[in-house]
Design a protein that fits this description.
By secondary structure, this protein is an alpha/beta fold. The protein has eleven helices and 15 strands.
Amino acid sequence: MKRCYLNAMAMLSAMGDSPGKVCDLLRSGQPELTLTDQFSPGQQLPLGLYDGELPEIQFSEPKWQSRNNRFALAALDQIRSQVNTAIKRYGADRVAVVIGTSTSGIGDSEAFLNQRAITGQVPDEYDYGLQEMGATAAFVAEELDVSGPVFGISTACSSGSKTLASARRLLRSGLCDAVIAGGVDTMCHLTVQGFSSLEAVSEQLCNPFSVNRNGINIGEAAALFLVTAEAEGVELAGVGESSDAHHISAPDPSGAGAVRCMSAALADAGISAEKISYINLHGTATPLNDQMESRAVTEVFGTQVRCSSTKPFTGHTLGAAGALEAAIGWLALRESLIPPHYWDGESDPGLPAINLVAKSTDEKLEYMLSNSFAFGGNNISLILRRL
């Protein structure tokens, strides 16, 4: 089977918009989320907001004018030269775009619909297309003027990871020679208030795997990759997917679906569990996810492999989370960095013991694994290998 490589990586989130900033923050071990009631009037919540400048979109059509697309453009600009080289080399018809999202332009639609509630009319500049789940993928393709396969993936918190699995399938099928793949999700009232209604949001910095854990922090992010069969960057060595369909929002408490996808990723990579040096956990800090994931990790890897959840640094970025955490894994391999696990250090006696990284460690790694477990039991594990 054709090997697949993540040649170039771009990211922006609450951690910043450059690999250097991200590495510095991870090494400091101090998350910097924003305490605000902007998306939850009357209730202050820590949110993983990106506060940097975003580029303007040059297209005039209203359907392209969303914050989600500006996030995508900001990330794309970080790897524009490598992408342009790939387009020139392979041809515009041989370059695909696959973007995962769960919000698309919903945040912008909220503002337009609020105006309708006040005035009774939808503003002329509103276009429903800006919130379609494929809108950001279509925007990136339009921005790059490429004509290979273009589609969005929206499988909740596994969306971003799923794009990398799809990119590999596109390359192996011969449908294209390069793929721009990743995840983009931006903050909106719908997600913050929706998760609040599920009683899944914490009013403090999230506390994964602690006996005191009480919910997630919502975040926003973009993470994009240039994916080709050229051996450069980091190899996407293994992919494992499963669907346990246990419940619309709660994971299977047995962890069976997570066990299946981690085991499948190891088999796909052709390696044993002992080869994995670090796991980036899904680690949402909700009671059920952390219980399930610790059980599954212990079953597949035992208690020695080093693990951390980076969500206290980014918030849970939903449709972008899998791509963002793959980008953190990309950095971990390239920069010889094991990200720390930020929590209060109070273990839950009801959870199997896993080896949570107390502080950032500089160490050369060969393989790492990243987990994404979404609503409905839609699970995926990615294994990345250092070249």
